[in-house]
Amino acid sequence: MEFCNKLGIPPVPVTEREVALFATYLARRLKPSSVRQYINIVRIMHLEAGLGHPFEQSWLVKTTLRGIDREKGREVVRKSPMTPSLLLAIKNQLNLTLPMDAVFWAACLVMFFGLLRRSNLFSDAKGFQADKQLTRDCFLIEQDSHCITVLVKWSKNNQFRERVHKVNLPVLEPHPLCPVAAVVSAFRLQGPQAPSSPAFSLTATAFARRLRYLVAGRTDISSHSFRRGGATWALSCGVPGEVIKVMGDWKSSAYLAYVDQIPQLTLDYYRTKMCTNLPTA
């Protein structure tokens, strides 16, 4: 709307030339991938108005977007993976006798070992949603069990809740990174709660702010670092890729992008699988 107001044109309908101008206007401050997302909104607005796709076969729009890609590049900057060493450094700064510190720490380990997204645990601006975020009754703690089973009812890959993804968190006591011990301690310190109450009484913003402080302001670490870190650590430990895909509930092979975080792993494959089988004559 800001763009349209500056040019004195209506937002619907627009010409392909105006769409190309809008793309270059956005490219001053946005990444090429974000420019495409904004341009797609223009398409949706026209379809909702019953006007059809305004630039589906537009050579002008297509080459403008290609030129933006070439000029700015399309490199994807990923967050660094969380590591066990960094987790221990975070734990050493917490007072785990305090309920909020215990909840924060339990959330860290659940995301790392469960390969979960931030949206599985924390509420955002819309507030807590019991049908999306984890609640107390999503954690099945059984006596004499070697794990806690977490029932994930909703995720980015399961937006219509047609299935329940089960995550098993292992008992690692007396190791300081035991996720089961962290969850049990957090629940105990918070006291009795209703089954449908939030498992982790933190907002996404509050968690991100605390995490940034504990990692000394590192911009390459975020809540997504736990999911990346869990998958990266599993790969480095030799867990088969297909098993990791199931653990993280990936529909695609996106988890394979994490291999680039483990150069030693790929080097070992070169040495043990490829180089040893090369002919000598």
TrEMBL record:
GO terms for biological process: DNA recombination. GO terms for molecular function: DNA binding. Signal peptide: none annotated. Keywords: DNA recombination, DNA-binding. The keyword tRNA-binding does not apply. It comes from the Eukaryota. The keyword Metal-binding does not apply. This is Uncharacterized protein.
